[in-house]
Specification:
The chain is mostly helical. The protein folds into two domains: about 70 residues, lambda repressor-like DNA-binding domains (434 Repressor (Amino-terminal Domain), Orthogonal Bundle), CATH 1.10.260; about 45 residues. It has seven helices and no strands. Helix 2 crosses helix 3. The N terminus is likely disordered. GO terms for molecular function: DNA binding. Pfam families: HTH_3 (PF01381). Keywords: DNA-binding. It comes from [Eubacterium] siraeum DSM 15702.
């Protein structure tokens, strides 16, 4: 993704900034996870630099989301997944907000598990 390609918008930089703050992480913590400098990550958040594809994948992994959600603007990032809804809730009607809550809870559980595993290795 080059700066000239126009594939990453201001929505991306704003979204990763919001996700980082929601997670309670510093730019330095995210940068360390990504294997880049704090300055490089800061440029991603300000929209002055676009991450290479491999780093974009790691950003999505860090925030427990997918690249579509990071890259799409507005409500287009919210994709309803009827199969997932059915697998989780059967015939019960749920809206996308409930599904989003379930996904966030699953990601929190995954983060907790990873944290416990990391602590166990120390």
């Amino acid at each position: 993704m080059s700066k000239n390609s126009g594939t990453v918008s201001g929505a991306f930089s704003e979204r990763i900034k919001q996700l980082r703050k929601a997670k309670g992480a510093s730019q330095a913590q995210v940068a360390e996870y990504l294997g880049v400098t704090k300055q490089a990550y800061s440029l991603y958040e300000t929209g002055k630099r676009e991450p290479p594809f491999a780093t974009l994948l790691k950003i999505a992994e860090y925030f427990g989301t997918d690249t579509d959600t990071l890259l799409m603007s507005g409500d287009t990032a919210r994709v309803s997944d009827p199969r997932l809804k059915f697998a989780l809730f059967g015939e019960t009607e749920i809206d996308d907000d409930v599904l989003d809550d379930v996904k966030r809870l699953a990601m929190l559980q995954l983060e907790l598990r990873r944290s416990k595993e990391k602590d166990g290795k120390k």
